[in-house]
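Re: the 93-residue chain
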Amino acid sequence: MKDVETQTQNVQNYISAKDVNAALADVKKLQDEFKLVEGYFEKRGNAADAVALSKEYEEKVAALQKALEASDFDGRRYSRRRLFQTVSRCLPR
């Protein structure tokens, strides 16, 4: 999850700097990681909450990607904030 936290922070920084290409690259990495986590917990079984949470992350990352691709700066900030808040809640402290 540290990689996810780092990538999420990087996306925030790239959006602030209006570096859409770099933000999209890290968003793609996040999508891949959340899909991997979802698959892991689906195969493991008895982890419906983890699967659901992974899907929630995937949806938020997809919304962020869509906003980035549309150059929607307000949407990007909103999507980024929602994603970061969700990831932050789940990271071990």
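The two ends are 11 Å apart (CA to CA).
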